[in-house]
Design a protein that fits this description.
The protein is mainly β. It is built from no helices and 34 strands. The chain has two domains: 100 residues, no CATH class; 104 residues, no CATH class.
Length: 226
């Protein structure tokens, strides 16, 4: 189904892909097989997509967003509830989520992101845009502020985490303010990072001379990691 002008989608399920190049309003909870928008989309309920979600315009859902595929956003996207996709979440625009955000296959952000819950993935989380996370960050590998070219014009701490950061393997953060603890197998704390909690590591640790740690790093055993 294509919407190229102004249209309305009523609550329910459509066994088809939705393509919006104009403006569309979704009333209530809506379910479809794919969603692509280059215009303006507003929804008052939850959106469930059995496929990929792509947005390059203005995308605002007051409820939660669930997807079986990937989500790619290059415009301005806002989700009032939680955001969950089974694939990869890729954002190069402005992303705001009112609850937990989880993408099983990985998360990449090069724009701005404001997450008012946890940020979770079974694979990599790679943040190279200004990011604020009110909860915890958990993934296999976590890279935050690792890009050498980013952060100068965004102030001292373009990355702020109110909770903890947990990486099963590699953790590399810089230019970040973390209120909680940091845990990883191999940990690298780069320039401009400030950790209020404690840094825990298993195999290796590297701390830049221009990073600030409130507490001395602690090496732990694998059985202490969880």
């Amino acid at each position: 189904m294509k919407i190229s002008g102004s249209g309305k989608l009523s609550e329910g399920k459509i066994n088809d892909k939705i393509s919006v190049s104009g403006s569309a309003k979704i009333e209530g909870n809506f379910e479809c097989d794919g969603f692509r928008a280059s215009g303006s989309v507003r929804g008052s309920g939850n959106l469930t997509v059995h496929g990929d979600v792509r947005s390059s315009g203005t995308f605002r859902i007051l409820g939660s967003l669930y997807g079986d595929g990937n989500l790619k956003s290059s415009g301005k996207a806002s989700v009032g509830g939680e955001l969950f996709v089974k694939g990869i979440l890729s954002s190069s625009g402005a992303l705001k989520v009112g609850g937990d955000t989880e993408a099983l296959e990985g998360i990449r952000s090069s724009g701005s992101a404001r997450i008012q819950g946890d940020l979770l993935s079974d694979k990599n989380i790679d943040l190279n845009g200004s990011t604020s996370v009110e909860g915890d960050i958990k993934a296999d590998n976590v890279f935050m502020g690792a890009s050498k070219d980013f952060g100068i014009r965004f102030g001292k701490h373009p990355y702020r985490v109110s909770g903890n950061i947990f990486a099963e393997n590699n953790l590399n953060i810089a230019k970040s303010y973390v209120a909680g603890d940091v845990r990883g197998r191999n940990v690298k704390i780069g320039k401009g990072a400030e950790i209020i909690g404690t840094v825990y590591y298993i195999d290796s640790i590297e701390v830049n001379s221009r990073a600030k740690l409130t507490n001395e790093p602690i090496q732990i055993e694998v059985n202490q990691f969880k």
